[in-house]
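Researcher: Before we compare anything, I want clean individual predictions. No alignment, no superposition, just each chain on its own. First chain goes here; please echo the sequence and then give the structure tokens.
Model: Echoing the first chain and its structure:
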Amino acid sequence: MAMCGTHVRSCITLTSICAKQLRYGICNSSPAPVLAVSTLRIYSTSHVKYGVLQRANDRFERFLERRFPSIYVYYRTFMKGFKALVEDMSEARKIKVKMDNDGIAYKELPYREMERLRLVRKDIIKAIPLFIISLPPFAICFVFLLMYLFPRQLLFHHFWTLQQQWDFKKLYHRHRARHHDAILAGVESTAPHLKSWMLRYHLQSLCNKVQSGVQPSVSDLLLVQRLFSGPPLGLLHMTNRHMRHLSGQMLLTSWLPAFMARGRLGDKALEILHLDRALTHFGVDQLTDDEVYEACYVRGLETSSLGVGLCREWLHQWLQLSSHVTESETSLLLHSMVLLSVNYPSPLK
């Protein structure tokens, strides 16, 4: 890892020197051959240094693999993760350039490009604190120690082993599940205050089904759909307590001021709606198994004990519901992450 850091610093130094020489040559009309020879000399030196560093890095990796195999696993995971992160950021940049050049809005992107931007934005936000910590001189060794000791808090999926990805997703879902009972109780508590006896009956029936362990159908949710655009369960009309439980099950910070937490929750719900529309156009059957698991997990389903066939079936049900949801009814999607997933699969399956 030290070797890789040296290589990165060498590349940065080379780039800055070339940039300074190029700027000097343009501003002062210096002869082009002088610039070319100088740049070539620097490049040649850098190329030789790179070969030395590469051989030293190879020996270092073999030493780790032979003497410290457990650390070598994390080292290789980190290096592969760093490469994957750079590729993702490069791809995200190309997508942003295309959006700017063609005047394409985020919600008009194809599903995979939309999902790529979502993941990169999430990763960058989590990487900012780690980058700040690593700024002081010689802090990189301390940062690597922190990453080794606290991978879940400081790193993201690029830098996790397969076992860590599995374990951390199960842990995050347990955090989400802590809010399920409170969300169900909050929905049920609104039923007696509804003026329409028909809506009151359908909502109470829906809550009884979920609480008794029965998987509700999409039609059950559509019967009470209009309750989620205005009072009492619309995003702008629900109580702060209920809104914070929804934020918790979305793994969002719930201790922010109410207006900020409500705004973040609304943005998250709208993002899921846009992803759903893009996925409907793309087709669930076009997704790989890993993409199916990730799509279900993002929408609230605990996938560790489910086969990919059941996950695809559930995702079809979710998109069937989402296709009837408007932007003013995105609260229904937030609640469906509990109502439609907590008892899946049904007892018959």
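Researcher: Okay. Second chain, same rules.
Model: Second chain and its structure:
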Amino acid sequence: MVTEQFDPRMLPDLIRRPLVTEKATLLLENNQYTFEVVPQATKPQIKAAIEELFDVKVVGVNTYNPPRKQRRIGRFAGHRSQYKRAVVTLAPGDSITLFPEV
């Protein structure tokens, strides 16, 4: 298996934001976190970005491209922005604080 090297300056730009939905909060019980990532990001890049940003050990990465949905604003028809969803499974004992205490 060939280990890919990534430019560490580009990794934080791959992760857009954590997704907090009902399904994503249920996955937190299994130590799985859901993030919105750029559509061009690959699984090894997502793994490297999460490990570097949050200082955790990633066991697995699952990705999902939701279908484009058509939207209409008045007489103009278009599509919603395209995004990719990544479900990241962390090693036992690791966790990410999505809502830090103030």
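Researcher: What stands out in the second chain?
Model: Residues 54 and 96 are 7 Å apart (CA to CA). Additionally, Helices lie at 22-27, 43-54.
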